[in-house]
Design a protein that fits this description.
five-stranded mixed beta sheet; 15 strands; YqgF/RNaseH-like_dom_sf; five-stranded mixed beta barrel; Arc Repressor Mutant, subunit A; about 45% helix; Tex N-terminal region-like; globular; S1_domain; Tex_YqgF; OB fold (Dihydrolipoamide Acetyltransferase, E2P); alpha/beta; Tex family protein
């Protein structure tokens, strides 16, 4: 099987599209660049398909490398036959490859190794041949200073036979399939830990059993966490009778005295070798599947969060609310620059409401504030009510903004570098305000795991998680495009072709030379060569630059084509851009070339019609029910406005304006069956929910979207 055929098993597209995509990847083209600017070469494959091709190539390379390693190892041992070599070369299944390699794999000394050292392998071979009648008479010939009896000799022979059975590729394959289809996972509480307070969150799994293939990812990860913390013991097993019967029928061909020895060897092989190995294998496979599932949920949530509605370039007064320590206030300019900071005490115990109102009014007027952002943590609702009582000279939009991860940012090196002369409270308030202006630009400064929109993100494979989240962040950044003259180093580092070091160089260039006037100026940045420019240029924007196309998603390589279009219409570039009447007159057939195909021309025309269009929606004001301030105010049957603040496989959590979020179980999202929560709701979506249950003791709220 070649690479293209291997990839076609997962990605449904033509061999040509796969080969072209692989060629572009080999040329160090980034996935966002390929997806956006090489559609004619890839057959219009999207980023997800291109990412799959890249991953499948990586898997293929891993398998090829493993095969080479296995072949070299067996050949070094002088055990490589033509038949075995062909089997290894033809296999593209890692489990099968490991099964083929198992008899030759270097391992710790086994019972079978000891038996061989004691000269018992010939006896094992005779028993396995099933041609001897009196096994005890034959076994007596193998007594020596280490083998004191016939039974000792037979035991050693059975140890060798058990290892052969365990290493039999056919048997392993069949029993593996049984484990994959029939395994039951059982979780039992560790009795000495049962009464511990921290164990109670896992009480559901104190006595739990279900088929492994039916185990939802969140349940499996919860059980594994409970085991890791020492509260439960997990076991994965199948009904052994059928498996052992099959093994006996495969191995035993006669009913002479050797049959009894072989039955004992089969039982030992299953219990001591096969079952533990395959049990662990299927559990690891299930864990990997659960990891990928949970990471997928996290990635979807993160994508929705990063592409949340921005307020845009407006002056914002941001509030990090609090009671005893007061409310931290910052005033930000249109680009998120800090203009002023202050602390007010409108709430108990100080309750200096009049002075707080006066200060807020003064700041709003002095700094020409256009919107107010309030963090959704402690004292959020009280602060929102307080702000809405103030009589401003002009209408102001008031937004409640998620604080998730703001404290992580405020204590980070990024925040210290940005605001070395301010404490963490000021930095936290700045982050809240900037999140309203541009969620994408601000949230990128926080490690995704700290944002809190995943399930069991600390329990999944951390390398897989980082890889997937980095792709999500990069995809989001490049889908939106960034302002080259205002973007932070964090934001720049995710732009196609740039990376962390180049982002530092761009920021350093800005500090030394001022703002960029055109995209070509990027080439002056230290170590930013032609390849990096090709990959990055179209994903950055320059407002009011020397070339109007620099504020669009049109790639510089296509500027001459657009200039020809304008010239043929006898208009300037500025007149052409955004003018639908002119654009509709363009005959795209006249302009495509070998380098810029019809799909690229269509994209160019769409971009010219709406240059630099932000794919995100605009920020909308949202208000919680004013009568609900704590969990004690909830009543069964109440219908309330809420905001989706987390999505899992089993439902979504909804912020209804109090400390505790409520759960809408997947069965309560809508009438009828729901297979995917994301089909019904999106992160930060504004919805209406009905209260169906309130558990005051455990502070749990059950909600329904079926009103």
């Amino acid at each position: 099987m070649n690479l293209t055929s291997y990839i076609q098993q997962t990605v449904v597209t033509s061999p040509k599209n796969i080969e072209q995509t692989l060629q572009l990847l080999a040329e160090d083209c980034t996935i966002p660049f390929i997806a956006r600017y090489r559609k004619d070469r890839t057959g219009n494959l999207d980023e997800v398909a291109i990412e799959q091709i890249a991953k499948q190539k990586q898997q293929f390379d891993t398998i090829v490398k493993r095969k080479e390693s296995i072949l070299a190892s067996i050949e070094e041992q002088g055990m490589l036959t033509d038949v075995l070599e062909q089997k290894i070369k033809n296999s593209f299944d890692l489990n099968e490859l490991e099964d083929l390699y198992l008899p030759f794999k270097k391992k710790r000394k086994t019972k079978a190794d000891t038996a061989r050292e004691n000269g018992l392998e010939p006896l094992a071979k005779m028993i396995m041949s099933q041609k001897i009648e009196d096994v005890y008479t034959v076994a007596s010939k193998y007594r020596n200073e280490k083998i004191n009896s016939e039974e000792d000799a037979l035991q050693g022979a059975r140890d060798i036979i058990a290892e052969w059975i365990n290493e039999n590729g056919y048997l392993r394959k069949v029993i593996r399939r049984k484990f994959q289809r029939e395994s039951v996972i059982t979780s039992k509480v560790v009795k000495t830990k049962k009464e511990e307070e921290s164990a109670q969150k896992f009480s559901h799994y104190f006595d739990w059993s279900e088929p492994l293939y039916k185990t939802a990812s969140h349940r499996l990860l919860a059980m594994l966490r409970a085991e890791n913390e020492g509260f439960v013991k997990i076991n994965v097993a199948i009904e052994p009778v059928d498996a052992i019967t099959f093994m006996e029928e495969t191995v035993i061909k006669t009913e002479n005295e050797t049959a009894a020895q072989l039955r004992m060897a089969v039982a030992d092989a299953y219990k001591r070798l096969l079952a533990p190995s395959l049990s662990n294998e299927v559990l690891q496979e299930a864990k990997l599947k659960a990891d990928k599932n949970s990471i997928g949920v996290f990635a979807d949530n993160l994508s929705q969060l990063l592409l949340g509605a921005p307020l845009g370039e407006k002056r914002v007064l941001a509030i990090d609310p609090g009671f005893k320590t007061g409310c931290k206030i910052v005033c930000l300019d249109e680009t998120g620059g800090l203009l002023y900071n202050e602390t007010i005490f409108p709430h108990a115990p100080q309750k200096d409401t009049a002075m707080a109102m006066k200060k807020i009014r003064s700041m709003v007027n002095s700094y020409k504030i256009e919107a107010i952002a309030i963090g959704n943590g402690t004292a959020s609702r009280e602060t929102e009510f307080f702000i809405k009582k103030i009589a401003f000279d002009k209408p102001l939009q008031v937004f409640v903004v998620s604080e998730a991860g703001a404290s992580v940012y405020s204590a980070s090196k990024v925040a210290r570098d940005e605001f070395p002369n301010y404490d963490v409270t000021v930095r936290g308030a700045v982050s809240i305000g900037r999140r309203l202006q541009d969620p994408l630009a601000e949230l990128l400064k926080i490690e995704p795991k700290a944002i809190g929109v995943g399930q069991y993100q600390h329990d999944v494979d951390q390398m897989l998680l980082k890889e997937e989240l980095d792709q999500v962040v990069g995809r989001s950044v490049n889908a939106v495009g960034i302002n080259l003259n205002t973007a932070s180093k964090s934001l720049l580092s995710y732009v196609s072709g740039i990376g962390e070091k180049m982002a530092e160089n761009i920021v350093a260039y800005r500090k030394e030379h001022g703002t960029f006037s055109n995209r070509n100026e990027l080439k002056k940045v230290n170590r930013l060569g032609e390849k990096a420019f090709q990959q990055a240029a179209a994903f950055v924007r320059i407002k009011n630059g020397t070339n109007p196309l620099d504020n669009s998603a049109v790639h510089p390589e296509a500027y001459k084509v657009v200039e020809r279009m304008a010239k043929d219409l006898n208009v300037s570039l500025k007149e052409l851009i955004g003018n639908k009447q002119y654009i509709e007159k363009i005959d795209k057939q006249r302009y495509y070339t070998d380098d810029i195909g019809l799909l690229a021309i269509e994209d160019i025309l769409n971009e010219l019609e709406k240059p630099g269009l932000d794919p995100r929606k605009s920020a909308k004001i949202f208000e919680f029910d004013a009568t609900v301030k704590t969990i004690n105010d909830l009543k069964i049957g109440q219908v309330l406005p809420g905001i989706v603040n987390n999505i899992t496989n089993f439902g979504c959590f909804v912020d209804i304006g109090i400390k505790e979020s409520g759960l809408v179980h997947i069965s309560k999202l809508k009438a009828g069956f729901v297979s995917d929560v994301n089909e019904v709701v999106k992160l930060h979506e504004q919805i209406m929910v009905k209260v169906t249950d309130v558990d005051l003791g455990n502070k749990r709220i059950q909600l329904s979207m079926i009103l």
